[in-house]
Amino acid sequence: MGPAAAVGFRFPHQDPESIARGNAFVATADNPSAVYYNPAGITQLEGQHVSAGLYLASMGIDFDAAGGGSARAGSEVQFVPQLHYVLSPKESRWSFGLGINAPYGLGIDYGRSTPFSTIATEATLVYLSFNPVVAYEICPTLSVAAGPTINYSDAELRNEPGVEFKFEGNGWDPGFNLGLLWQPCEQWSFGLMYRSQTKINFDGDSELKGVAAARATEAEVVFPRYLDLGASWRPNEKWNLEFNIDWTDWDAVNITTFKGTFPVDTEFPFNYKSSFMYEFGATRYFEDGWFLSAGYVYSENSVPDETLSPFNPDANLHLASIGFGRRGEHWSWALGYHFAHNPGRTVTLGPTNLFGQSANGDWKIFNHGLNAALRYTF
């Protein structure tokens, strides 16, 4: 579910209006997806709002091995749904929201004839978060919010060290998110969002086909905390320009041990490094509720050469986006498109396994993403 070729295996794309603005939305947060981007923003809404969206991703990863040979992760379209609900009673300082989304995700398949088939062939990571929130308007210029997250994840990975190895497992863990929105004057607004770390203990089975039957296996994976800080400048009622800095604590993701694999436990070294995304977006508003947005993101690499895996060939990425839509009295809709591109990352220090294979070589990334959402207000 969702490509993982940016910001580790995090998936920050949860709404077309935000995507179109380069995900620079934490200081604007004025639609139901604020439950995810900055829950304090739901105090700006009045009445009830339901928003349903679908993100379509097409991933392109090309690899040329240092010793010859190549591989490609196909462009099969992957689907990620999103659902947000907000209730803001009239003349009340309290607002309530619920979000169902996928803040992490991975779906990648190289096939079997690759220079690294004994390291990785296919992986799928599904991570669903159920997030009720409560927001309070302290005064007309300042709102705060908090809520628990109930997080479920399902994972599957395969490689082929002579015979196929497969692991499947699932688990859950609670967490929380926080938000703050401050608008000291009409032209400026500032936002802050924090999402806590979770640790999913995947209980499942591993199997080495033709050698060992399925065995009970477990592995604990850290899904790191992240923090998003933004400022929005609105020089007039027709324009909104925003800049965000988004930090993810990838340093918390170190070594995962698969306990119970045959013939001994298997270690998967991540040893990631914390990284930033720098996000800029602009929206132009027109008559009758129409708007047009564009944005840019620079996403820092979080995966060092020493532990790079074909399952997650992260890199410094440039993301450009555009989108448009219309906000009506009851019905609203939006469409956002972006692409992520890295012209090349050369890996020379990656580990070599017992079969003499490694992920050393040149990696190129070009991903597409399209998100559409429909909203009803009543």
Q: How would you characterize the overall build of this protein?
A:
The chain is mainly β and 378 residues long. Strand 7 (142-159) and strand 8 (165-182) form a beta hairpin. The protein contains 2 helices and 20 strands. It has helices spanning 16-20, 34-37; strands at residues 47-58, 61-65, 70-73, 77-88, 94-109, 122-139, 142-159, 165-182, 188-195, 198-208, 212-223, 226-233, 239-248, 255-258, 266-269, 275-285, 290-299, 317-327, 331-347, 361-377. A 14-stranded antiparallel β-barrel has the order 1-4-5-6-7-8-9-12-13-16-17-18-19-20. Strands 14-15 form a two-stranded antiparallel sheet. The protein has a single domain, classed as Porin, CATH 2.40.160. It starts with 15 loop residues before the first helix and ends with a strand.
Would you kindly provide a brief summary of this structure?
The protein is mostly beta strands. It has helices at residues 16-20, 34-37, and strands at 47-58, 61-65, 70-73, 77-88, 94-109, 122-139, 142-159, 165-182, 188-195, 198-208, 212-223, 226-233, 239-248, 255-258, 266-269, 275-285, 290-299, 317-327, 331-347, 361-377. The chain is built from two helices and 20 strands.
Summarize the amount of helix as a percent range. under 10%
Structural class: mainly beta
Strand order of the largest sheet: 1-4-5-6-7-8-9-12-13-16-17-18-19-20
Average predicted local confidence, pLDDT: 93
Proper CATH architecture: Beta Barrel
The CATH superfamily appears as Outer membrane protein transport protein (OMPP1/FadL/TodX)
